[in-house]
Amino acid sequence: MRKAARFTLAIAAVMSVMTAASFAQSVLTHHVRDAVTNGDALYIERMNSSETLQLDLVLPLRDAAGLKQFLADVYNPKSSVYHQFLTPAEFTERFGPTQQDYDTVLQFAKSYGLEVTGGSRDGMEVQVKGSVGAIETAFHVSMSNYLHPTEDRVFYSADREPTVDLPFNLWHISGLNNFSVPKPRVQRRSDVAAARGVQAESLVSHATTGSGQSASFLGSDMRAAYYGGTALTGAGQNLGLFEFEGTDLTDLTTYFKNAKQTNNVPVTLLSTDGTSTSCVYTRRGGDCDDTEQTLDMTQAIGMAPGLASLVVYIGSTDTAIISAMTTHSPLPTTIGCSWGWTPDDPSTLNPYWEKMAAQGQNFFAASGDDSTWSSRNEAWPADAAYVTSVGGTDLTTASAGGAWKTETAWADSGGGISPDKIAIPAWQKLSGVITSTNKGSTTYRNGPDVSANANFTFYVCADQTTCTANEYGGTSFAAPMWAGFIALVNQQRAANGKSTIGFINLDIYPENLTAATYSADFHDITSGKSGSYSAVTGYDLVTGWGSPKAALITELAAQ
Predict the structure, then answer these.
(1) CA angle 491, 495, 499 (to 5 degrees)
(2) Tens digit of each residue's pLDDT (9 = 90 or more) over 110-126
(3) What are the φ/ψ torsions at residue 357 (nearest 5 degrees)?
(4) Distance separating alpha carbons of residues 190 and 186, to the nearest angstrom
(5) In angstroms, what CA-CA distances link 519 with 524, 537, 548, 555?
């Protein structure tokens, strides 16, 4: 009877797809870049119909309005459900796709000859691969190659917005173009200096005060400067890193060996969509560079050396990576991302950002290293509403491995007003956040939210080659640093019998409008500038609220 029932359900799913074939549903997000539609990208030729592509079919939320209300309640201290976050399974039952809808998408894909390779109902996605010909038929598009208008390369893209023969809309289809290639935020001092026609030494005008080689900063130095204690190590906490490429853990081992330290955090490399977790550099063309991936690990572990786990989530599409981050067990409750790219549609990841907030997770994104945000200096994903954007500072400590001494704005810190025209979130509308002094927008999202050291003052090991001192910098260092810092907060909250803190923007904005709280929680960066904006008293568009003090742990642990 069970086999018969499953057969009947499968037939019903296929029939629903066939019934829907007479009316193609639109997909709820945008997929075709303006360069394709307006002709700025020169058409070259149709793609070979036998070429294979991988796609990620993302299903919509079942109750988007209900989720927004839940988020309003779960972050409201006066609510009966305050900080009562959902598990991935609970989220699916309330807001995710139904089993029937998920099965229907599976049958839809298979009916067009697409092979299902991954995904899950809890992750709200179905990963598939198939020939260009099958993809064109399934989504009613024509796939072609184009000359990129601003980069020296060819990219592929659908010629129109996809439609699907389903009884409901899909939310997004990742992989229908490769117009934007994700790039790590990390910057190399010698490269920046050469581009500006200056001497590399001029980019760091003071002696560094770290405990690494040539007085460069180690991750442990950041812990000493911003936390300064020993009791909290991130014990029991699970941290995730968002990466588009794998790594070679030999480089992590080399870093700790050279720093004369021991890493006790178990590290797992997890492929979210079949992407290789390996990254080996042999100085030949096309080799993999794991500088970003390794430094992300060293900064997270340096801040929280007692983590229960650090999982590096590796994939080729943003939806596949972030879907895994919202479903994996153990769930990463604090996450760092040091990559930037231009999205097909700035709303693409909104369901996942909101899901993270509902599950008590916090996603930290590097704000970038090219100064003021603009359409040419993409902020994404740091300007997304439910993301904590991390800017850069220039830190000096009292001694090697010593306490915080002084800090100014880093000259290249990314920040400003959302170039993706993301609406200003409620927490930035609070009186006293946006002022005539900081020149923020009252219409669009402003960034960054917080900051930490990003100057060219770090010790880095990567690519199985000689390690470097005071050569690399960027908000790439600051984002995983903050992810590690919040692991300390969550450890203290667990000791207090509380849930994780979740999305911190909903706490730090209202709390730090009070002068006494602010001065206790943050180093207010009031000197220096980056591009169009200057660091000023209070919140600003270069350093956000500033860098953390140990008291911020106590403040957030009490919420």
Answers:
(1) 70
(2) 999 999 999 999 999 99
(3) -60, -40
(4) 12
(5) 7, 11, 10, 12
